What does this fold into?
Amino acid sequence: MDTITLLSAAEQVAAHLREALLREGSSGTIAGVRPLATDLGVNRKTVERALNQLEREGLLVAQGVGRRRRVVLPKDHAPPALRVAMLLYEPQAQTEGWLMESQHLLQEAGHGAFFADKSLLELQMNVKRVSRLVQKTEADAWVVIGGSRQVLEWFAQQDTPVFALFGRYQGLSVAGTKPDHVPAFAAATRHLAGLGHRRIALLARPERRLPKLGRAERAFLEELKAHGIQTGSFNLPHWEGSPESLHQCLESLFSKTPPTALILPEAPMYFAVQQFLGNRGLRVSQDVSLVCADGDRSFEWCRPTVAHISWDFRPVVRRVVRWTNNVAKGKDDRRQSFTKAEFVAGGTVGALKV
It folds into this structure.
């Protein structure tokens, strides 16, 4: 029969601290004797002996009286893999090329990347529903795609690290990245106004309008004003974000004084509006100009070419992977960044008929 080795209190504390330091991948300093004794519920002498043991192992290095011990991870220590939950804006986003690439590179880096059971639209951007989903999901970190201000504010208050992809994260203490749509929106609006368009509507989703306008939407209105165009609810009409609400909005817009140009947030909406116009006998570019505020692979097959806003997804993907690796190493990474976006003129935009 194998003998049983009983660990002393100091050895148990050393084992607990050793496991925590290696799991967190910390390369900074460890708390002092007093706070550790309080947190662990043991006396200071036990903690001191445990720390001395970790010094002998080389995991800790003393830095002098009154200074915290420095953590020195083994050279062959690999950062722990994280379970990264990706909270999508809508279920269909799973097929987006950049999102699939993000998941693939995270898995290559040794992390477990998976999609949450529900999307933000399925949860209706409801903070209580998001909270319940997060509580029942086993994840070490979250990547939230297209979150509203309220949703991202809630995530910013949680202990679990979060990365905001797109969405209204500016001013919050969370990491994030997205294309800088402000110059591109201004360029698209300027291009339309230069072609004589005065009745231009941007069908921004609700989370881009509430609780206040996003930067790109403000840039759109400011560019209209710069061309002497009076702005109002016609330019940024209210709709709820559903297909039914979109068509109701279009019916209302085209019932009296129809717009001559529309800026649409995403490719699915672009094709829905194209169908709406076709059913009314209206031709794209000749009767109504269309701009999509995002790119899509299917646009390569379209003739005439689709006017849209283009951005390179590679810096976005690299930033997500870099953030995850930083979190795995115990770093508090909350840096926010932009990637360049630009307006690409296409055949779906034409001069206003006089």
Q: What stands out?
A: The chain has twelve helices and twelve strands. The chain has a mean pLDDT of 92.
